[in-house]
Q: What sequence folds into this?
């Protein structure tokens, strides 16, 4: 189960936001073996002064259109799967929403299965 947080600056259209969210989900399905209906995403639109990122750290050239993507999912995906996921997210965002690959920053947080509760106060996987 992935839980995806998307952080970007305010001012984008609802259609753009949906395209971004859809592109990330499709990459998760294609590269990380996530079921299509396993979709939990939060889009956080921020003021300019609330999204601080170095414009060239890591050898990339970021613009004001930076999207920071935080993906929390179960422990166990290989480095190769993660590399493929990062590349696919960047490619899909470029194709779907004209996002430059340098404007895509991704962080993966892996947790053990017992850290999830889908609702009802139950530890879903414990």
A:
């Amino acid at each position: 189960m992935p839980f995806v947080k998307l952080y970007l600056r305010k001012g984008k259209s609802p259609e753009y936001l949906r395209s971004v969210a859809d592109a990330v989900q499709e990459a998760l399905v294609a590269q990380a073996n996530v079921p299509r209906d396993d979709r939990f995403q939060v889009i956080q639109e921020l003021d300019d002064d609330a999204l601080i990122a170095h414009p060239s750290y890591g050898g990339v050239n970021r613009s004001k259109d930076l999207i920071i993507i935080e993906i929390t999912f179960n422990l166990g995906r290989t480095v190769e799967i993660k590399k493929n996921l990062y590349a696919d997210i960047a490619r899909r965002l470029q194709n779907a929403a004209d996002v430059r690959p340098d404007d895509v920053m991704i962080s993966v947080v892996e947790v053990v299965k017992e850290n999830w509760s889908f609702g009802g106060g139950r530890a879903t996987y414990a």
